[in-house]
Design goal:
CATH architecture: Alpha-Beta Complex
Structural class: alpha/beta
Number of strands: 12
Distance between the termini: 15 Å
Oligomer: single chain
Radius of gyration: 17 Å
């Protein structure tokens, strides 16, 4: 399958993290879900989005060749060595995106069941003029603010809170500027864009785009897999 003749979007997947909270084993993106690495599931769904022209994976440096071999049957993918931190991996992958691609989506391999229509929804909002777009879900739990001694200070108004997912979408030039200006670490790329004073727009996320962090998340994802076809 060739992606070159279609789309205006590059998907960047930082996949060099160890995944300590999943327990000992392979790097997180290479842990198995229903017999296939999380990264394979993530790439398959990204490639199913028709506006995606290019996928760049930042792999553990020692596993670049193995990841390239793993993904060759799944979709055409550019694989680069990742860095010690997530933002280092995103920067390394972003450097491989050519200047003629104007929209970049940054996606976590740990959200490997994110459906292709979520990629399209985020990309379309960037295409319509939003420089930075994040998919979100309403927060359904009651949230308490606590002090260092675990004493409750108050109840946070959850109506103004959102749980953030990926893929996050950006005007490519804006994302490059945010990474160039980053002086400290950030947990997502929207945070880097916020720090340079740019607004970030929310779009509806997907229940399928859960983040696999702990062993129980793998069990939930295994159950959801039957609902999460690549297209």
């Amino acid at each position: 399958m060739s992606l070159d003749a279609r789309g205006d979007v590059a998907v960047v997947i930082p996949a060099a993290g160890a995944g300590v909270r999943l327990g000992p084993g392979a790097p997180k993106a290479l842990r198995l879900l229903d017999g296939e690495p999380l990264l394979v599931h993530a790439v398959r769904r990204a490639a199913a989005a028709t506006s995606v022209r290019m996928i760049v994976v930042a792999a553990p440096p020692a596993d670049v060749d193995a990841v390239r071999t793993l993904l060759t049957p799944v979709a055409p993918v550019t694989v680069v060595p990742g860095g010690a931190e997530r933002q280092d991996s995103v920067s390394a992958a972003l450097a491989a995106v050519p200047d003629d691609i104007g929209i970049v989506l940054v996606h976590d391999a740990a959200r490997c069941l994110a459906p292709s229509d979520l990629f399209e929804r985020v990309a379309a909002t960037v295409r319509d003029g939003a420089g930075a777009v994040i998919p979100t879900l309403p927060v359904v739990d009651t949230i308490k603010e606590v002090d260092a001694g675990e004493r409750v200070l108050g109840t946070v108004d959850r109506s103004v809170l959102r749980a953030v997912q990926t893929p996050q979408g950006f005007d490519a030039a804006l994302l490059r500027a945010a990474h160039a200006a980053a002086a400290d670490s950030h947990t997502d790329d929207a945070g880097a864009v916020e720090k340079i004073g740019h607004h970030v727009i929310c779009v509806p996320g997907s229940d399928l785009a859960l983040k696999i962090t702990r062993p129980i998340d793998l069990a939930v994802a295994t159950h959801l897999l039957t609902l999460a076809s690549p297209g």
